[in-house]
Write a structure and sequence with these properties.
- By secondary structure, this protein is mainly alpha-helical.
- It has two domains: 53 residues, no CATH class; 246 residues, Fic-like fold (Orthogonal Bundle), CATH 1.10.3290.
- The chain is built from eleven helices and three strands; from the N terminus they run E-E-E-H-H-H-H-H-H-H-H-H-H-H.
- The protein has a three-stranded antiparallel beta sheet, covered by helices on one side.
- A hairpin with a 2-residue loop joins strand 2 and strand 3.
- Helix 8 packs across helix 11.
- The longest helix is centred in the N-terminal third of the chain and has 22 residues.
């Protein structure tokens, strides 16, 4: 397995391509290539499918935003447990809004109101494909599974991730639901080419590790951004990667005590742009986007608590 390591010489940075090799029964790290600047390193990562290293600097979010999020989360925690009726109302609101927005980002044609009727009333919408209906009910079921995993104290496993994906594609694509892809895929509208399908299980270990990381508050927000981009970068499944990435980002946040967040369809262009920037090694736009969603979710839950 190869990875990029950042090094410093005075005030300048350079990069090493490092490969782990087994020699005489021991694993050793061998430097096989040097990069004198970040751009050449990024070009190599993009063309060879090597993960871009994380920035070495401090928090991406900065002190003021981190302090604001921490203050709101501390206040919310001081008000727990929230009234049961308020929690149930928030839960149903999240079901509909998260399902609508996450599916709409991927091209689902149900409106917000139609999504409400599908989830709350069990009504099929005339003139809309059955696939749109199934995407809505499947996503609601995936949220239920997500909540069970979030509430559990057990370590999150690869099986949990595969089960979430299987729920997303249930009755839509049973041959691929819950199974890593076995073919090369290409993503329209981006220069990034996902890694070879044979490398997917190994690379998914990073996502699982990030899901189980223990950082709280802003560290959790940054972790959610890393694993969201990591899964999108790996593109481990034939379909359903975006919806799964947004659910897993929520799983990381919920394990850290945050309420779930909804990434809005109306900012889809900024969202895709932030993923492109992350492909180039800049996670700040995606992290800020998630942080602002966290801020809105905290405000909503605090208003319900008071």
């Amino acid at each position: 397995m190869s990875f990029i390591r950042e090094k410093t010489r005075g005030s300048s940075a350079y990069y090493e391509l490092v490969k782990s090799v087994r020699e005489e029964g021991r694993v050793r790290q061998r430097v096989i290539k040097y990069f004198g600047d970040r751009e050449s390193m990024l070009d190599y990562c993009r063309s060879h499918g090597v993960p871009v290293p994380r920035p070495r600097s401090g928090s991406i979010l900065g002190v003021p935003l981190c302090a604001s999020l921490k203050g709101k989360l501390d206040t919310l925690n001081s008000l727990r447990p929230l009234p049961k009726n308020a929690v149930e109302s928030l839960r149903r609101k999240f079901d509909v809004e998260m399902t609508y927005n996450s599916n709409a980002i991927e091209g689902n044609r149900l409106t917000l109101r139609e999504t409400y009727f599908v989830l709350e009333k069990g009504i099929t919408i005339g003139g809309k494909p059955m696939k749109d209906y199934l995407e809505a009910t499947n996503h609601r079921d995936a949220i239920r599974l997500l909540e069970k995993i979030a509430d559990s104290k057990a370590k999150i496993t690869e099986t949990d991730v595969l089960n979430l994906h299987a729920t997303i594609l249930d009755r839509i694509d049973p041959h691929n639901a819950g199974f890593y892809r076995h073919e090369q895929v290409y993503i329209t509208g981006t220069r990034h080419v996902p890694p070879n399908w044979r490398d997917v299980p190994e690379k998914m270990k990073m996502v699982i590790s990030e899901l189980n990381s223990s950082g709280r508050c802003c560290a959790a927000v940054e972790s959610a951004a890393r694993l969201h981009h990591g899964l999108a970068w790996i593109h481990p499944f034939v379909d359903g990667n975006g919806r799964l990435a947004r659910l897993l980002a929520n799983l990381r946040l919920m394990r850290a005590g945050f309420p779930p967040v909804v990434l809005q369809r109306r900012i889809r262009r900024s969202y895709y742009s932030s993923l492109d920037r992350a492909d180039s090694g800049d996670l700040k736009p995606l992290t800020l986007l998630i942080a602002h969603d966290v801020d809105r979710a905290l405000d909503l839950w605090l208003s319900a608590a008071k």
